[in-house]
Amino acid sequence: MTNILDISICIACHPPYLKKLEYLLKSINDSDYYPKECIIGLSETSILNARKIENELKKKFNFLIFITNSNKKCNQAENRNRAITEATSKYITICDSDDIVHKDRLKIIYDIMEKENCISLIHSFCKPNNKEIKRENTKNYWNIDLNKKLIKGNILYDLMKKTEKRHLHLPILCHHAYITFKKELFNNIKQDIRKVMYRKEDSKFVRDILKYYGNNEKTMMWYDIPLVKYY
Length: 231
Fold this sequence. Notes:
This protein is α/β, with parallel strands linked by helices. The chain has helices spanning 18-29, 47-60, 76-86, 105-116, 153-163, 201-213; strands spanning 3-13, 33-42, 65-69, 91-96, 100-101, 120-126, 150-151, 180-182, 221-229. Strands 1, 2, 3, 4, 5, 6, 7, 8 and 9 form a 9-stranded mixed sheet that branches. The two termini are 31 Å apart.
């Protein structure tokens, strides 16, 4: 029996990544826990084509999928912001369209958000093994150590302050794009859509959260376990 959690998965996608997107959705579909909804921010796509793609995906996967489209060319931040705006769940978690998620990812991050009552959560990632050259052969299960200690927001805040003049990316093994947060956070902070932030918008989003909510244990937590296979 599959359980539905009060969490929305929001994915930014461009048309060339639609095939890769299906591998991500399959890794979600193979889990014992489904999101309340999966919202895909798809650019360069008409409303007619978006509904066609959406209906095709709904036939393949067992959780609620919705596409919010834009006819124009959008960057990742614009597509993410549009998807997050449509989300209705207690928690939002962001995914990239070309990765694979661990089968227990959704349950793990949901339980931490509930137990710790934190505002946001980041985690680590791993790269596929050499044997897994082809994405379609990649499985959504690999060994993880759940006994790792949660690193809390005051430590991450200090790290952010010490490195803010050097680079945007926090110097830890975390997948900045795969952040989970309470929906109300988006009322205060959105992803930076400026062109100068291309491929940096997710790292800046993490820093903006730490700056806005300040030096507090609950601002953000980092769980150093690889819940995503990053390609």
